[in-house]
Design a protein that fits this description.
Order of helices and strands: HHHHH
Number of strands: 0
Structural class: mainly alpha
Distance between the termini: 23 Å
Helix content: 55-70%
Length: 83
């Protein structure tokens, strides 16, 4: 079976993955699965990297001079599922 079928088997959606990656998921059963399933662990790592990249870009935007803040950042990272 390919990775895609494993994802379909576990049925965990991207929003749940992101909540877990941000330490905001309280469902113990889902958390346990995400900690033990190799496929899901890789997906969580992608989400954590995306979140870290997004924070970095947003912090740089906040550190920019006020006139530069009105422009939308052009270097926002793509969501893992959009890449």
């Amino acid at each position: 079976m390919g990775d895609e079928s494993k994802h379909q088997c576990c049925g965990i959606d991207d929003e749940t993955m992101e909540r877990y990656a941000m330490d905001r998921l309280q469902d113990a059963v889902v958390c346990e699965h995400l900690e033990t399933c190799a496929f899901c662990k890789a997906r969580v790592a992608e989400r954590r990297q995306w979140i870290a990249d997004l924070k970095r870009v947003l912090q740089a935007q906040l550190a920019a001079k006020p006139s530069d803040r009105t422009r939308r950042p052009t270097n926002l990272p793509m969501r893992p599922e959009d890449a």
